[in-house]
Amino acid sequence: MAANQRIAVGAMVAAACAASLAGCATGSSGSKEGAPGPVKGAPAPNSVLRLIGDGSTAYTGAQPHLPKPERLKSGEKPPQFVVFSWDGAGEDSQKLFSHFRKVAKANNATMTYFLSGVYMLPEGKRDLYHPPQHSPGRSDIGFNDEKGIADTVQQLRLAWLEGNEIGTHFNGHFCGPDGGAGEWSVGDWKNEIAQAKKFVKNWKTNSGLTNSPPLPFDYDKELIGARTPCLEGQKNFMKAAREMGFRYDTSGVNNQVWPKKKEGLWDLSMQLVPFPGHTNEQLTMDYNFMVSQSGTSTQGDPDKHGYWGDQMRDGLLKGFSRAYDGNRAPLVIGNHFESWNGGTYMRAVDEVVERVCNKPDVRCVSFRQLADWLDAQDPQTLAKLRTLEVGEAPKQGWASFLSARPAPAPKGVPGGPAVKQ
């Protein structure tokens, strides 16, 4: 029931957003079929464990499998970063969260999962959500059920323990006029962020699953970045996010160039890449490829499904090659756990991960890991990298281009001397 509801809601959201360049997250909610099974991936019995609040979350020590960021040496060619990210992450009957966790592990990759807070809230408790500029209990995407929450929590737990990042896609996914995210004030955004955290930190109390293991992280510290619904409201969101300790935003549209900070946050926007068969470029998101191919229909002509997926795959691969052989700007890709046009875009992402993440000098990472690496670099080195245009490799070669001796990283910055406690 819940899974079918998600698909119906997703179609309505797609129709509402079809006219814009922005990507729309439709997310996932759970299915009521069957009872919750045993939960795997709890912290080891002898590990550090300090429960937080009602025990929905816990401090379990430093996150495993996070690489230590290192500052580029003089003349060193930068690695090629690729970020695969997911809007409205949740586990439903399609099992796409668990699927892409396995794909990531098999290809030496980590990813960012932007959780929608309402997926941690059961339908019967929907009135606990007070969305900005809307009545209590209102949401443009579905709430969840007991099994859906249990399944989503299990995937979140395993994903974090494997080194993936848990970000936020906020809650009700409101787009467009009449109270959409683009009309929210800084105060509205702070309220929305606080509620997204609250639903994660209280999923046990709200769902009744009090005997389940906790999520193994402190979400107040874990949450450092987001993507806004339909890429709307970025300006006021960034002001709120900076004041609430966020480190990056990925709600914009950019070219394939090296990122810089905006409003004190790393601007890790999705990018425009070649669109095979077209003269224009396309945003690196499944939703935008779909709208350009089948319009507002999430299930267009079945005879074209394979071709459409190949178009997205080849466009992302062309964008990757343009950076890999050119300026080495990080490639940022956004997606949803969806079955649009027969699941062809999910197949495309599978193939892109397999083809790029195993290449030499390629690092398929989360936004957190990318932000850590950027923070570790000499600002002058990053400024020089930003002089390279889309697809432009240094004419004199990387060794000469980045031959200046980088300044040492200051204390407390990744890659610099440790701060004495």
TrEMBL record:
Family matches, as InterPro entries: CE4, Glyco_hydro/deAcase_b/a-brl
Renumbered residue ranges of the record's region Disordered: 402-421
Signal peptide: 1-22
Superkingdom field: Bacteria
Any one GO biological process: carbohydrate metabolic process
Ranges of compositional bias, category Low complexity: 410-421
Keyword Ligase in annotation: no
Keywords, ordered alphabetically: Signal
PANTHER family xrefs: CHITIN DEACETYLASE-LIKE 4, PTHR45985
The protein, known as: Lipoprotein
Organism listed in the record: Streptomyces shenzhenensis
Source taxonomy: Bacteria, Bacillati, Actinomycetota, Actinomycetes, Kitasatosporales
